[in-house]
Amino acid sequence: MTEVGPFERGTDGPRVILVGVDGSPTSLRAASYAAGLARRQRSRLVAVFVTEAAPAMAGWVPSAQALVRDAAAEVDAELRAELARAAEQLGVDAEYRTASGDPVAELTRIADQVLADAVVIGASEQAGHRVVGSVAVRLVRLGRWPVTVVP
């Protein structure tokens, strides 16, 4: 009998799929893709919305931090409700989490915490990420899970 290493969970296909969502069109496509994959694989879906701890513009404009916080709370509530509706409609075991901080660090932390077998993320639409590196590229470079980047 071959001994299985700690990374092997003894299943065919992913049991837990983590998807990063932020309300952008690509993240919503990633969530749809991940939900379909979770349904077909009978996997648990964990959707994660990460807000920045201290937005860069918050220091420039008085009360900007409150506006950014309110906007993030609104997006968070909409995403939570949409995930609940979709999960019920598809019959998918889904969980929604909110975190604050660096998106890569938080997605990594939560993926490790839930023992994610796969990560799904939307491709960045920001031109500057070609130079600095998007969340998707940084997750792929970590090489800890299969990462699907949805355009």
UniProtKB/TrEMBL annotation:
CDD domains: USP-like (cd00293). InterPro entries: Rossmann-like_a/b/a_fold (IPR014729), Universal_stress_UspA (IPR006015), UspA (IPR006016). Residues 15-151 form the UspA domain. Belongs to the universal stress protein A family. PANTHER family: STRESS RESPONSE PROTEIN NHAX, UNIVERSAL STRESS PROTEIN UP12. This is Nucleotide-binding universal stress UspA family protein. It comes from Modestobacter roseus.
